[in-house]
Every structure is written in C-alpha cells, then in structure tokens.
Task: inverse folding
C-alpha cells in the first residue's frame, strides 16, 4: 500500500509543480518559488519512496543517487539560476551565464538519463511504463540540443518556435510522468484490494 501511496503523492507533486509553473511563470516572467520545491520533492520521493519497495529505483545506489541529484539540481535551477529559460542564448545573457546555464542543463540531463536508465533496468515499475522516464529524458535532451546548437543570432521567429517547443516539453514531460505515476499507484492499490 505504501508503494501506491508514494507513487500517487510523487505523481501529484509533479503534476501540481508543472501546472503551477505553467499558470504563473508566463505572466510574471519567472518561476514561482513553490514549483521547483514541488518537483524536487517528487523526484526525491520517487528515489526513496515511503518504503524500499516504493522506490522506483529499488533504492539501488546509482539510480537513487541520480534521482536525488536531479532533485537537488532542480532546486539549484529554480532558486539560483540567474536566467529565465533561453535568455542565456541572447547577447544580453553573456558568455558566463550561458556557460553556467549549459553546465546546469548538462548535469540535469545526465542525472535524468542515468536515473531513467536505472528505472528501466530495475524491475519495480511495470512494463511498458518503466520506459516513460527515459522517453522524457530523451525529449529534454533533444530539445536542449536543438536550442544550444542553433546558429546565433536567433531570429524572432526561431525564438518563438523554440519557446513553444520548449514550453511543451517542459510542461508535457512532468505532466506525463506525474499522471503515469498516479495511474500506476492507483492500479497497484486496486490490485492489492482485489487480492
């Protein structure tokens, strides 16, 4: 029962964090302070669960550390990162800010990919759902690769396209992961109730 509860709570935290960001970040021009904390809490809960059986990594060291690192990096990005999304790509962003943002993104993507591979390898999340985190990590990686390898200066049209695609991925992946976690948690609870 604790597995179901862990996954539902973590999934709900991801969904709420994503929706909170989508509703408040655009008009105010920045991420609200609560969204990174919700997302980080979700990743930490996925990593350790309320019990060992509830951990999506089975509490194996590599996957657990990767998810906890991703959780910490989300907090760093949310509270320390000096740039809003894609501002580092402009001349006004400056080379130092661009380098900092790129390093943070590489670390986040690395942690996400390692965690996703470990989730897929460990027999905790049922098939085919165990592959969803890896698909999300790949979507982020492809989106960031496109953003960072685009020729400069970026035209306004390209910035619009990049902004829309980036927004869809940044919102869509956490929503998908959250809803899948909630679904699997509810399904697992229903299976236990039937048994």
Result:
């Amino acid at each position: 029962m604790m597995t179901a509860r862990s996954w539902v709570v973590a999934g709900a935290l991801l969904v709420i964090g994503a929706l909170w960001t989508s509703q408040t970040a655009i008009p105010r021009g920045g991420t609200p302070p609560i969204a990174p904390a919700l997302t980080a809490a979700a990743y930490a809960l996925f990593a350790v669960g309320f019990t060992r059986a509830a951990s999506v990594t089975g509490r194996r060291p590599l996957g657990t550390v990767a998810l906890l690192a991703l959780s910490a990096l989300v907090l760093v990005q949310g509270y320390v990162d000096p740039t809003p999304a894609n501002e580092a790509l402009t001349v006004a962003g400056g080379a130092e800010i661009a380098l900092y943002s790129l390093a943070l993104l590489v670390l986040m993507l690395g942690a996400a990919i390692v965690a996703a591979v470990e989730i897929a390898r460990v027999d905790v999340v049922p098939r085919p759902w165990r592959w969803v985190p890896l698909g999300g990590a790949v979507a982020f990686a492809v989106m960031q690769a496109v953003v960072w390898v685009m020729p400069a200066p970026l035209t306004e049209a390209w910035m619009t396209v990049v902004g829309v695609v980036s927004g869809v991925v940044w919102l869509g992946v956490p929503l998908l992961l959250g809803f899948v976690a909630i679904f699997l948690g509810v399904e697992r609870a229903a299976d236990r109730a039937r048994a």
